[in-house]
Design a protein that fits this description.
The protein is of the alpha+beta class and 216 residues long. The radius of gyration is 18 Å and the shape is globular. Bound molecules: fe (ii) ion (FE2). Fe (ii) ion binds next to loops.
Length: 216
Amino acid sequence: MSIAFNMPFGDFFEHYQEKKPLLLKGAVSEIEFSWKDVNDIYSNSDAASNDFKLSLNGIRPKSEYVESYLDIGILRHRLIKPVVYENLKNGATLIANKIKNSPKISHLSNQIATFTGRQVVSRAYLAFGYKDSFRCHWDTRDVFAIQLIGRKRWIIYEPSLEHPLYTQQSKDYEQHYPCPPNPYMDIILEPGDVFISPEAGGITPYHWERPPSILQ
Ligand SMILES: [Fe+2]
């Protein structure tokens, strides 16, 4: 799986990086990513850590979907799978942050790191149905969203707070900097599409992701 950025880095740096959003349709060639790869990402994640989250009308408490058990005297944690499945059926989003042990994800991340010359942290978002993954928000880092399976709608707004610092999370500032009324972009990502949303400047920190993913 290789990503075609379709422009020299100099052009990207001058026109898009930290400036405005960019949609690269069909940028990933020869997608080799299956539901087994998805399962591997989530089973290799530590469900008890803060890097693993279940979001449905806000982030759910661990006690709802993670249980502890004794493994020959060692305390371990595992997902309560029926609860996770029920949440996913109801439109939840399952998030694995700082993905490790996934050669395919590392391969994609490395290409972004090589192109931008920046550190990359990988996250997976899994969801079904038509519910919003998150309410309108901005991110305090550049986002390279790669659609690998299914489809996802993104609604992008112009920034209400220009150049937020990493400490200025939208949940703490949205009362004073509310989401603008009219979208700047309204797009549906399909497998192989890459959407680049800059963290600050020009155009987009505010985006609204919905529905999370639709199985084809
Ligand atoms: Fe976001």
